[in-house]
Model the fold of this input.
Amino acid sequence: LAHAKRIGRIPIVVRDGPGFVVNRLLFPLVTEALDLLLEGVSIQSIEEATAEFGWSKGPLRLLDEIGLDIALQGGMVLSESFPERIAASPLMVAMVKQGLLGRKSGAGFFVYPDQQHAAADDTLEQPNPAAQAIIDRVALQWGRPAEKHTTQTILMRLLLPMVLEASRIIAENKVQDPRDIDLAAIFGLGFPEVRGGLLWWADTYGPTRLLNMLRGLERLGARAQPTPLLREMARRDVRFYQLAGSTLLSPG
Done:
């Protein structure tokens, strides 16, 4: 911990486990973003919705930065531990097969015609028509019906599964304090600082309202199924930032 602080990093203590914290929060985010694309939401609409929320890079730009091949490999590893809610997206598989790996290959969900300037100016990056063609083809193959979405429904679709995953991490005693999850989200995923962090944002709604909002995502199955911890929080009217030292969390 001292070394991390000396080199200007903010460390958090996490118990060992697949994906630790950052990757376990990342994959619900990108899973829903990829599914939204297959439901007819445009690349630009997803990025604009997250930009309006305060993200400097939305989930599709984030995938392009990571590299779709690396993200696919990471997702396959996590799917072995959490097969009920994490699986390799057919869209990501198709993108990787076509060599659309993101910034490092010059194109992914966005086109990066000038690596030197695009890195400094996101306005030079445009949605990739080749990626859209793959999205349309995969959606047709998998029979995904088009759905209407607003900025708000896009955001809730992306954020609520992340909150559920955070609640699982807490219930498994992977972190010492729920606030550590917010540090991981802000500094590991670029979650907007102005929102205070993922769980701080969730606490502005409260557990009962979160459960009500999740009813609209029941069709997603296990990915959007309320966790026992969230249900108990609603029963006791306890918020995430009140969980540290709470009797709701048994030592693991």
In short: Strands lie at 110-111, 126-127. The mean pLDDT is 88. The chain has two domains: 22-141, 151-242. Residues 202 and 215 are 16 Å apart (CA to CA).
